[in-house]
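Before relying on records like the one below, remember that each one covers exactly one chain. Contacts with other chains, cofactors or solvent are not represented anywhere in the record.
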Amino acid sequence: MDLREEQWQKLKPLLLGSEADPGATGRDNRLFLQAILWIVTTRSKWSALPPEFGRWQNSYVRFMRWNQADIWRQLANQLSDDSELQKILNPIVAFGDEHTRRAKRRLANKNNRIAYHAKLGGKAQPNASSKKRKVR
């Protein structure tokens, strides 16, 4: 899914990291947004992000920071009168919400493991899947 020029012109002034903003500047906000759209529409792993979008780690970290700051939802709310941009932004908001739910679930599971092992009188054990098994 590519952004049309008129869609980009509506989004551009609302995005963080422009030249006028204090602090670090996003090298290419449009490319970043295209990378996020690629991830959301393909449902691929971040590491599968094509190199033309830049390093996947940069896109991931930036996406997570924007998600934690609720930037995606704020953008969707600010552009609620534009149904075409809503079709673009709503899946990003949903993807961010899904990622947040998974992260909270992982944290809860980790805390439960720690509490369980503390009751047993030991420290939290590593995941069974992370232990190497001997092959016979």
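The chain has one domain: 5-122.
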